[in-house]
């Protein structure tokens, strides 16, 4: 095999792996159904919220996962335990934020399942509008520079946002 054909073979294998979704979080964007505007690979809009329920997280130098959700949304509720797990396992490198456009009293009364990550309110839908969110739950994962590295419906068959996907996105722990 000459040098050119090796390079072509490696490139072809990489393309097959990405197309097949073998590389975590790197499934072909064109095949993935989104219910929001795609910002994948570009800088995401600024996070604007009306109120934090609790303290505002320190996001500087960290990856940020933003979950657009509502208390009445069954799939949103189903995703909460997984998001709690991301918050616990990756909290030193990843800030998990749930944003609801509902009234504060509605969100504060919500207890099942318990949310253990940061929560914010966006009743004026400023961040929802910037991301053009049309369906929830919708999640974006941004790197420390604000570039969207994963986006979509976290429970979508074949494109689930899993611990393996998060591990594939985040840099390895130091030390």
Helix fraction bin: 25-40%
CATH topology: Glutaredoxin
Overall average residue pLDDT: 86
Strand content: 15-25%
Order of helices and strands: HEEHEHEHEEH
- Which structural class should the secondary elements be placed in? alpha/beta
Characterize the main sheet. Answer: 6 strands, mixed
> Can you identify the CATH superfamily?
Glutaredoxin
Number of strands: 6
Number of helices: 5
The low-confidence parts are: 1-28
Structural domain tally: 1
Q: Name the CATH class.
A: Alpha Beta
What does this molecule look like?
- The protein is an alpha/beta fold.
- The protein has one domain (25-169): 3-Layer(aba) Sandwich (Glutaredoxin).
- Helices cover 30% and strands 18% of the residues.
- The chain contains five helices and six strands.
- It has helices spanning 3-19, 74-90, 104-109, 126-131, 163-169, and strands at residues 51-53, 63-69, 94-100, 118-121, 138-142, 148-152.
- Helix 3 (104-109) links the parallel strand 3 (94-100) and strand 4 (118-121).
- The radius of gyration is 18 Å and the shape is globular.
- The model is unreliable at 1-28 (pLDDT under 50).
Topology at a glance:
Blueprint: H1 3-19, E1 51-53, E2 63-69, H2 74-90, E3 94-100, H3 104-109, E4 118-121, H4 126-131, E5 138-142, E6 148-152, H5 163-169
């Amino acid at each position: 095999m000459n040098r050119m054909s090796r390079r072509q073979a490696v490139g072809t294998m990489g393309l097959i792996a990405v197309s097949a979704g073998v590389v975590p979080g790197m499934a072909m964007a064109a095949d993935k159904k989104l219910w929001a505007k795609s910002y994948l690979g570009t800088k995401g809009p600024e996070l604007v919220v009306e109120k934090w329920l609790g303290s505002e997280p320190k996001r500087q130098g960290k990856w940020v996962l933003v979950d657009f959700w509502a208390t009445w949304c069954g799939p949103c509720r189903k995703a909460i335990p997984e998001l709690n797990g991301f918050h616990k396992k990756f909290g030193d490198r990843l800030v998990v934020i749930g944003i609801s456009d509902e009234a504060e009293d509605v969100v504060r009364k919500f207890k099942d399942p318990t949310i253990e990550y940061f929560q914010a309110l966006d009743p004026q839908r400023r961040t929802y509008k910037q991301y053009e969110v049309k369906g929830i739950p919708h999640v974006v994962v941004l790197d420390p520079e604000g570039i969207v590295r994963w986006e979509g419906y976290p429970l979508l068959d074949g494109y689930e946002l899993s611990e393996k996907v998060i591990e594939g996105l985040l840099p390895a722990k130091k030390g």
